[in-house]
Amino acid sequence: MTVRERLREKISTAFYRHGLLCASYPVPIILFTSASILACCYPLLRLPLPGTGPVEFTTRVRDYTVPSHEPQGDLGERPDWYRGPPVAYIQQVLVKAAVSPWDSTLVPVDVFRSPLGRVFSLLEEIRNHVHNDGSGVRSLEALCLQVTDLLPGLRRMQTVLPEHGCLLVSPGNYWQNQRELFDSDPDLLKTVHQHEPKGLHTSATLRDLLFGVPVKHTGVSLYSRKRVVTYTITMVLGSYDARFLSSLRARLRQLHPSVNCSLREDHMVHVHFKEEIGMAELIPLVTTYIILFAYIYFSTRKIDMVKSKWGLALAAVVTVLSSLLMSVGLCTLFGLTPTLNGGEIFPYLVVVIGLENVLVLTKSVVSTPVDLEVKLRIAQGLSNESWSIMKNMATELCIILIGYFTLVPAIQEFCLFAVVGLVSDFFLQMFFFTTVLSIDIRRMELADLNRRLPAEAGMPPPKPGPLRPREAPPPPRPSPYTITLQTPAFRNLRLPKRLRVVYFLARTRLAQRFIMVGTVIWIGILAYTDPAGLRTYLAAQVSEQSPLGESGAGGLPPHLGVASVFPGPGGDPASTLSVLPAPAEPTPLPENQSQGHHGAPREGVPHQAQAPPLVPQISWGAEDEEGWRRLSFRHWPSLFSYYNITLAKRYISILPVIPVTLHLSPREAIETRHPQDTRHPPPFIGMYGEGSKQVINPLSLSRVAALGLAAGVLLVLLLFCLYRVLCPRNYGQNGVAHGRRRRGDLPCDDYGYSPPISEISPLLLRGHSMDIECLASDGMLLASCCLAGQIRVWDAQTGDCLTVIPKHGSCLYSCIIGGWEQRDGWDTVGVAEPENLGGGTEPGGGVFDEDEGYPLRRRTTPRPALFEDQPDLTPLIDTNFDSQPSSHLLLTPPRDGFDFGGLVERAYLEHEPPSLGAVWAMELRGNLIAAGRSSGKLELWDAVEGSLRCSNEDGVSGITALAFLNNRIVAARLDGSLDFFTVDINKPLGLLQYRGPPGRSNMPPSPCYSSEDVISCQLTRSVQCAHQKPITVLRAAAGRVVTGSQDHTVRVYRLEDSCCLFTLQGHSGGITAIYIDQTMVLASGGQDGAICLWDVLTGSRVSHVYGHRGDVTSLVCTTSCVISSGLDDLICIWDRSTGIKLYSIQQEVGCGASLGVISESLLVTGGQGCVSFWDLNFGDLLQTVYLGQSSDGQGVRQLVVLNNAAIVCDFGSELSLVYVPSVLEKLD
Amino acid sequence: MADSTVVSDQQRSGSGQTDPSRGPYIAVITNRSTTLVIRGFMLFSIGVFLALVLNLLQVQRNVTLFPPDVISSIFSSAWWVPPCCGTASAIIGLLYPCIDCRLGEPHKFKREWSSVMRCVAVFVGINHASAKVDFANNVQLSLTLAALSIGLWWTFDRSRSGFGLGVVIALLATLSTQLLVYNGVFQYTSPDFLYIRSWLPCIFFAGVITMGNIGRQLALYECKLMSEKTHQD
């Protein structure tokens, strides 16, 4: 044994034990695994969440210093990106302007024309502001961020965005910061809108950039209700100078004081931007993810033969994902911070780790034998695959380790993650997935078994020893599925149209699908239209590219065509400096004047309560403090990106805003009017529109909710109506009533149809004093033999007793107590008469019986008067004989099956003279009864006359089974030998009369031996050691004799020359049942619960299935299927060609094992005091016929199907003849 | 990937073809030359798609926040590159099963779609690594990629014919690229192996293995269809 093999064995053992552990304690293990996953993922909480949203950090303005580059020790909450100077400082001047008091002579344009016009003077002021202190002269020019060209794709924006100078943006940029252009612009709104992208409104448009506040808040609109215009002048500073900024702030405040302004001015906000993923990066990323999903899809599709495919697929994906998370978490815990882009390497990690192991495990486990315990199945499956799993894992680890030594940091990190991920994946597979698999398999078995719990109770304990440790797993079996009943066509015809519609709906699940689709669409619409939902997000996404689209689409404003080359706002420092000497020019409004304007018209307000306020209120609130927050978070990145400055992984500092309040007089507004301004439509129309809009906008969410609620209510009402219309009133009760049908109930299909009960009634054939032991029939005659050794011949058509072949009287009298005489006498009378009547071939017994008043034939169950005035000896007999064998029967190991010979022998040993013997086997052909006795004697009796025609005593061992075919008799003996006899008739064969209709039976029409012939029976050949152990089954058909024995083999002999053709080996238990018919189909069932189908011509095994827990007790084939019954009270129906189990029927405990097929689709089974008819196509119980009044535990052990669609079965000491009239019609 | 879903759809429809009443469409599908054309077209589209995506990966090495022109960057390479890649991949994908057939050793190793997907993912990963990971020097990069390519072959192919064909095609492709660059059709930014990058043969090799894998899988499906048909006949 090499090291490798030893290692392999050890690994396999370890995996086996592990599988046992996992399957034994599923819940604690799953809890433990979940806990460990959570523990390992805990460090992930410290990692920043993925996403591109900016991060903020606030510091105080007062003691602000530019942070150093070096990471300092403990800076508390200071984030690690807060290092070094920011890209830029943003200083915004927030202007709120209003014309006050509002005059009725003013037109809507006046709301914003003159306030916007003031931006130019403000700009002048800001640009020319100079701070002069001891350290030198500072102006905006020196501090601001100097920008160069716009990006090449943005040529169209050159007219509005500054180039080659200070980055200073304001609404004035629309007019190139020139007052003259503004004044001569006939339509300000048009100019502003020209630069807007068509279609969706986006969040970082040029308008947002220039105004610095969201469009809604600017007030630049004809329908502005508040009549306050808000805009900002945004200065982007390259360096920070506290003194210059504070002097500017003081200056502006002095010029334009804001009275009620209490904005906080002591905090600056640093905003850090993450790296954004562009479209070009997204495409490969999306591709890799699509490949990943395709991989997962194709992998999980292979999971098969489990209870819940989706559940296991989910578990597999969870295993891989959480192993990745665990890997990242563990790496973080030990101080390795991930620097790779997680989203990018994630698909590759998944692919490297793979789902293969999980699938291999599943496959291996489901291919273990189904009849094993779940625990053992899991353990076996694990240990089968242990070596390959370990090998694969070692290989992958090696490859990754090699990758680790490439010494490239990125690859090293990837490898590290992959190694930890692999190990944790292995851990999860072993603990999490295996346990989930065991739960799944158990669920599957439960679903399979939940119908058969009573059978389990009655089952014999599992056989120890040779069956269990199966070395090679048996071939994969198809999963047993439960019976799915298709509604037969004839039932559909009977349905009302209404029900058919409902069934159609139910079958196709149309309603559910419609509702589902509708719900999905509805939710989608909700999500899209929701103000905080997808639409705005999409708009934000689109806005990234908006300037590009806009630049191509929008036309140039006419006046810009003139001034195409525009000096930027800060483009010419010399000129601005020259303007410096007149700084106070644009500040004509003294403080008190504006105050006066503010206060004076207040008295006028009350008498115009409904109109908008005459004096626009300029209020400063907390929301103005950080007005930039209301902008898109892509506002700043997009502004900078126009100049090819990326903010990714960098930060900007936003300084507190400088508030500016402007009040303008109506006179000023009128003065700045453009001649075309008055042509705008009268304001009140707009005001109505605006008013309604104002009402609607905040209500849109609640409106949607109300609509949704209404739709939901409507839906419910609709469904309720549908239900009332389509469903019958008593739907519920009916469903329960016919939902479950117990055996023995009136059979009744789903639509209330039940066949009349009187159709089938058993005909009891009485006469035997003890339990029936053997039963044989050739279609016309019926021979039965009881434990007492008495053979009776009955007419199979009428049920008349034709002959009684008595045992030798002395024996009977000696062994049976008193009353027997009486009874025997009665018997002899009954027998003697037919003989006297001439004993023709025609049974005349029935006539005689009725004449004599001996009602031998009874259709009713009550005991006849004859037996009531006589001492009823049945109990005594039972005590003496029946109880013993029957108790013995219960104790006998089930492998003895049908072979009652042993019982009989034991029962009779004490009571009978040894010279004779009990009849162990009996066959009937023509009118010859072949009886095999326990003494080894073969007797041939004339069935009609009751005379012994011939006997052969060549053998000494008891005959356990007989086959009588043509003129040959085969006898199997207890010692395993097989004797072939030939029946010779001293008469030309041509004179033989053939009798009996050529029925569907598989036996050829048997020659009728007349009583004149001299019949001799010769032993032609004796195969001494046909089997090592007693032969249990013997069947003959189609010129073949098949024997099954307890030595696990089946042998096939040719009938003509007694030559052994094949010895079939394949069972791992004694053979208990064999079926062969004219079409040379051979099926055998054994004690191992296996059923084998053989090809008799070649001796090869066609299929091998395991269907039963315990012995297969009987086997029958039809042209399309094989029916088997087992000790587990299960009847299995298999497809004959494929060996797939079609369905199985669970019977009650102790139902007996007898089976018969009446027609292709009608199966009859024997039960406790009853026989049941089943529809083979659907597995429906058609009818149960009770044989006696009291089902006192007498099981039907033998069941013979006669030609004329009748069945005969034994029922204690009686025979029961049951006609199945409905089948008669079918047979025609 | 759109292509793969198409494939799986057809596979599904193929498996449902056991009923004898076949429509004209099915008959067309089962026609041999038609399947060849369909297969070729599929391989071609996969090749074009991969070429576009991987080229994008190569082009977009420098992260910019707002690429000036996204659409044009997708088609940043010359127009003839994707069709060339598509044609090459169609040829390779048809060649592999053909050679398997000629040699009489059908490829049995890991013949499932999940494995093919894994292979494609690894191939994209190799490209990703070549584009995104910063290596110390070119030799290291090339060696790593060569090892990765060989690993790809060993993991998903393991056939001698596959290896031989891969090497031959990779050499041919490298040679032709050299010629192209020599004639000035295009050029590499920092050539280190005559006129091209030294990792190019490795990428070619991995691509050949991947396309061969896909082609074999498609051919397998066709074989199944054919055998089904003969069964029915």
From TrEMBL, chain A:
Spans annotated as Disordered: 455-479, 574-613, 836-855
Xref: Pfam families: Beta-prop_SCAP, SCAP_N, Sterol-sensing
Keyword Lipid metabolism appears in the UniProt entry: yes
Major localization listed first in the record, in broad terms: membrane
Record membrane topology: Multi-pass membrane protein
Keywords, in A-Z order: Cholesterol metabolism, Cytoplasmic vesicle, Endoplasmic reticulum, Glycoprotein, Golgi apparatus, Lipid metabolism, Lipid-binding, Membrane, Repeat, Steroid metabolism, Sterol metabolism, Transmembrane, Transmembrane helix, WD repeat
Location of this chain's protein in the cell: Cytoplasmic vesicle, COPII-coated vesicle membrane; Endoplasmic reticulum membrane; Golgi apparatus membrane
Domain SSD, first and last residues per copy: 281-439
One of the GO biological process terms: regulation of cholesterol biosynthetic process
Gene Ontology CC annotation, any one: ER to Golgi transport vesicle membrane
Composition bias type Gly residues, residue spans: 837-847
The keyword Transmembrane helix appears for this protein: yes
Transmembrane segments: 20-45, 277-298, 310-336, 348-372, 393-411, 704-726
Chain intervals with Pro residues compositional bias: 459-479
Family the UniProt entry places it in: Belongs to the WD repeat SCAP family.
Function: Escort protein required for cholesterol as well as lipid homeostasis. Regulates export of the SCAP-SREBP complex from the endoplasmic reticulum to the Golgi upon low cholesterol, thereby regulating the processing of sterol regulatory element-binding proteins (SREBPs) SREBF1/SREBP1 and SREBF2/SREBP2. At high sterol concentrations, formation of a ternary complex with INSIG (INSIG1 or INSIG2) leads to mask the ER export signal in SCAP, promoting retention of the complex in the endoplasmic reticulum.
Protein name: Sterol regulatory element-binding protein cleavage-activating protein
Gene source species: Oncorhynchus mykiss (Rainbow trout)
Automatic annotation (TrEMBL), chain B:
GO-annotated molecular function: lipid binding
Main location: endoplasmic reticulum
The entry's keywords: Cholesterol metabolism, Endoplasmic reticulum, Lipid metabolism, Lipid-binding, Membrane, Steroid metabolism, Sterol metabolism, Transmembrane, Transmembrane helix
Gene Ontology cellular component annotations, sorted alphabetically: SREBP-SCAP-Insig complex
Swiss-Prot/TrEMBL GO biological process terms: cellular response to insulin stimulus; cholesterol biosynthetic process; SREBP signaling pathway; SREBP-SCAP complex retention in endoplasmic reticulum
Subcellular location: Endoplasmic reticulum membrane
InterPro entries per UniProt: INSIG_fam
A Pfam family reported for this protein in Swiss-Prot or TrEMBL: INSIG
Coiled coil: none
Entry keyword annotation includes Repeat: no
Sequence segments annotated as region (Disordered): 1-20
Claim: Membrane is one of the keywords in the record: yes
Membrane-crossing segments per the record: 36-57, 77-96, 139-156, 163-182, 194-214
Topology within the bilayer: Multi-pass membrane protein
Similarity remark: Belongs to the INSIG family.
Function: Mediates feedback control of cholesterol synthesis.
Protein name: Insulin-induced gene protein
Organism listed in the record: Oncorhynchus mykiss (Rainbow trout)
Classification of source organism: Eukaryota, Metazoa, Chordata, Craniata, Vertebrata
